[in-house]
Each structure stands twice: as C-alpha cells, then as structure tokens.
Amino acid sequence: MCPVNGKLQLHDGRTAYHFQPAKFWQNGPLYHNGLYHFFYQYNPHGPLWDTGKLSWGHSVSGDLVNWAFLGTAIDPTDPFDVNGCWSGSATVLPGGRPAFLYTGRDADVAQVQNVAFAKNPLDPLLREWEKPSCNPIIPFPADVINNNFRDPTTAWLGRDGLWRMVVAAEVAGAGSALVYRSADFLRWERNAAPMHSSAVVPVLECPDFFPVAEHGTDGLDTSANGGPGVKHVLKLSEFDTHQDFYMVGRYDDEEDTFSPEEPDRGDNCRRWRCLDYGQAYAGKSFFDARRNRRVQWLWVNEYDTKDDDIAKGWAGVQAFPRKVWLDGDGKQLLQWPVDEIETLRMKRVGMQGTEVKAGDLHEIVGVASSQADVEVVFEIPNLEEEAESFDPDWLDPHKLCKEKGAAFAHGGVGPFGLIVMASGDLREQTAVFFRVFKHYGKYKVFMCTDLTRSSTKEDVYKDAYGGFVDVDIEKDKSISLRTLIDHSMIESFGGGGRACITTRVYPEHAATSNSHLYVFNNGSGTVNVSKLEAWEMDTATVNSADALDAILVAESS
C-alpha cells in the first residue's frame, strides 16, 4: 500500500471505515452494558467459506465506528454443531444475561437449532460462552425438506410470558417462517400455523421480525407487542436472488399471526418492498437501548474471484450500520447511516445553486473521493415539460437500469446524479443516478447504481442495480441523494433513505492513481444542485486488538 495525497490507498479493495472481519462474515448484533457487540460467521482458517465449519467471531465497539476483535465466541466443537456454527441471533434475557440462538450443522450435517449463554453476564466484553447439554433445542423437523431449516431470529417475549422466535424453513416445498414458543428458552414448541408460507419462493433464510413505532423515529425493544402505535416488520432473505424483502403489518401475539399492511402484494416475498436494491443481503437488526433506536446491519459479499479473495486474505464487508424507522405512510422503512459516522468527517467542500445543464460534468475537488461522504439535493425546474412517459416494459428495475443507464443521453428528466470511483480518463466509473418518468398523471422516480463501467477487469461481476423511490417528487420538485464511498464499497440512499443501493466495485486505477468524483446530467434539460456537501472521511480502527484499550477508556470516561 502507498499514500496518495496523504490518504492510504487500499489496493486490495479493503475499506477504511466499514466493518470488516479478519476473514469472513455476518450474524448477531447486541448492545449490552455500555458496549456494542457484533457476532458473525467466521472462518479462522482462511478467507473462504470452505466446508462451512464456521465459528462465531466477536468484535466490540463503543460507537459502532471503531471496533476491536476479541477472537471467537463459539466454535464447532459439539455433536450438534460440529460441522459449523451458522447464522443466528442474540437476545438479552431478563436479569441481563445474553443468549445466542443459532443454527448448527450436526454430525449428520442436518441443520438444527441451538442455544448458548454468556458465562458471566457482568463481563462487559462477554468473552466466554457455554452451550448447555440439552442442545439441540429444536431438532430437524420431519416435514422440512432439502435440509433448509436455519437462522433463528432474536427472541421476543409475549404478553403471556412465553418467548417466541422465527426460524426459516422449507416445509413441503413452501418457504416458511416458523414460529416457536418457549417458557424457559430451552424447550421450544412449534406453532401450528407459520407466520408466513409460500411455495413461490421455496428457500428463505435469515428472517428478522421486529416492532416499529407508527409515529416518530425512535426504535422499540424487540418484545414491544402489538397495540396502539405499534406495527411490526417481517423481513425475509431470498436465497436465489440474494435479496432482502420486507412487509410492514400488524402482529397478533395471541395467535402469532402477521397481517400485512399491503395485502395486495401477496405472499410472494419478491413482490414485497426491498430492503436494499443492490448487493447487500441477510440483514439483521437490533434495538439500541443507549440511543433508543433500531439499528440494521447488512452483509455485502465479494464480486471478484475466489482467487482474489485468497490473495487478499479476506472476504466480505458489512454495510455501515443504519438507523431504521417507519415512514409516515405506514408502509415503508426509512434507512440512514447512524449519526456516529459523522465523527469521521474531516475536510469539507460544497456546491450551492449550481446549474447542471444537459451533458454537463462537474468535478468535485478538494476531498479524497475514494473515501468520502456526499450529500446532494437536486432540483428539477421543468418536471412537467421534460419528463418522459413511462413504458410498462420498464417495471423490471434491472431491465430499466440496463436500457436507460447513465450513458443514455438526452432521455428526459435524467439520468442525473453522481459519478464515483472514476479514473482520470473516465474509462472506469460508477454512476449513481435518478430518472423521472410520467405515469398515469403522476411521476415515477427511478434510482440506479450502474456498475457496467466500474472496472476494466474482465473477471469482476459488473451489473446494474435499481429500484423505484416512493416519493412525491411533484410536491417539491426535488430529490436527495447521499452516497458513502469507501474504496470498494458504495452505499447510496435516495429520497431520504426510501431507497438504498449498496454495491462493490473493483476499479484497476485505484492501485496506482487517484479516483475522481463528479456531478453529471445526461438528461434533456437542466437540473439544479441546490446544495451539495462532500466530506473526506477519516479511517476508522476496525478489528484491531490494539483498539480495545481505547474503547474501554472511552466508555469509562
């Protein structure tokens, strides 16, 4: 590695302020006794999944930004998890004792559900965990097929005093969210009816189920039950597409049933709302009692080659933690990077009241654009006259992003937005942009991250990712965009967090030269940048053992 303009260039795509393990990823976040804990699937022996005989890695933080690595929390050492400690969750029991619910692959490679408890709940670092001999607490069910039975959620306590959790399963060919109940967290019984079931999507994983306040942005404890002012979110990860879908609805804790707020979307979760339209997957949330908020984690895989991963010695990144709350329409979630990210902001540059005419390209200079946080508001002065009519064939966001990409010039309102991680000759560039269409007397706002020109390397996956932003652009004639740029990671939030797209990029120029950042407009008319702020971001301390003393000192002061 070498410094460029005083900033360390990360040749292997390693990020500077996103959470990365020493080697692999994803699982159970937790706030306990003043510290944030993150537990994740981890291969101590190499960067790849290999045989799946994974442990749970463990890192701690005082601010969700700087992290210290504490080694492994649990390892595949028992008959009920000897072939791997797979995904699960963390729950804090009454009295303050944390517990894991997790999927183990047993000696027969069957997926079974297990529990582990913190040995000493008073230890702020929660270094030691014990697995009771009664594991597995849920053996492999007779009606589940294809060994698809995994990923228990954080448990919640019903008004009847019983614990509940959801486990993803393929039951008789239907992707299902099974509900289990327990009085003691050790003996669990399955509810007769699943919370969700559909044969359209047979393989589901990594479910999440949590309450949200109908009004305001505060989070709710996972055991906050249905009642006035409370709705619930059921999130499911779809194995084939590697996307997370969610539905807002009402939860009845007597019957353990979930009634969707948008029943017209049906039981095919692919028609539900999308948590992130890009490459982020397997989201897991937790209630942060310190800041009274719900925080969402998302895992982002590698999209270069396995040989690249072996050469780097690591694979996988987490999206930056996001605060999640319910929009005023009561149907969609808003997501936004947690406020602590602003502690990394350093040098700032801005732009205000700037016209961006058709075909214009304005470079944003003065910050290291490979490690930046950019917020911009675009105004559309001639929305009615310039918006193109929407073709029903474009309802597929992927198709629309490919056919009407950033290079599609003079197409109406847009494409306009940001070009990030660009080489000096623009042969490598990633565009994050909007297009606006007329549709039955209203307007549809489309957002896309186009990776097709992100790298000149041939063995990198370079697709285009997009989705529709559920905003009333006619009211304000403006749309906002926030993009976090961190070397190989690009996270974008459109319309105040109503649409999110997270992607990985692997530009070759980053190894030898600076990247560039631009505002662009390839639409037929002018758009105005009413406000743009770009910050160069500091480098966080991520998974260094040296960070532990600083974290503990900061928390004790």
UniProtKB/TrEMBL annotation:
<keyword id="KW-0964">Secreted</keyword>
<keyword id="KW-0134">Cell wall</keyword>
<comment type="similarity">
    <text>Belongs to the glycosyl hydrolase 32 family.</text>
</comment>
<dbReference type="InterPro" id="IPR013148">
    <property type="entry name" value="Glyco_hydro_32_N"/>
</dbReference>
<dbReference type="GO" id="GO:0004564">
    <property type="term" value="F:beta-fructofuranosidase activity"/>
</dbReference>
<dbReference type="Pfam" id="PF00251">
    <property type="entry name" value="Glyco_hydro_32N"/>
</dbReference>
<dbReference type="InterPro" id="IPR001362">
    <property type="entry name" value="Glyco_hydro_32"/>
</dbReference>
<dbReference type="Pfam" id="PF08244">
    <property type="entry name" value="Glyco_hydro_32C"/>
</dbReference>
<keyword id="KW-0325">Glycoprotein</keyword>
<feature type="domain" description="Glycosyl hydrolase family 32 C-terminal">
    <location>
        <begin position="340"/>
        <end position="536"/>
    </location>
</feature>
<dbReference type="GO" id="GO:0005975">
    <property type="term" value="P:carbohydrate metabolic process"/>
</dbReference>
<protein>
    <recommendedName>
        <fullName>beta-fructofuranosidase</fullName>
        <ecNumber>3.2.1.26</ecNumber>
    </recommendedName>
</protein>
<dbReference type="InterPro" id="IPR050551">
    <property type="entry name" value="Fructan_Metab_Enzymes"/>
</dbReference>
<keyword id="KW-0378">Hydrolase</keyword>
<keyword id="KW-0326">Glycosidase</keyword>
<dbReference type="InterPro" id="IPR013189">
    <property type="entry name" value="Glyco_hydro_32_C"/>
</dbReference>
<feature type="domain" description="Glycosyl hydrolase family 32 N-terminal">
    <location>
        <begin position="18"/>
        <end position="337"/>
    </location>
</feature>
<dbReference type="InterPro" id="IPR013320">
    <property type="entry name" value="ConA-like_dom_sf"/>
</dbReference>
<dbReference type="InterPro" id="IPR023296">
    <property type="entry name" value="Glyco_hydro_beta-prop_sf"/>
</dbReference>
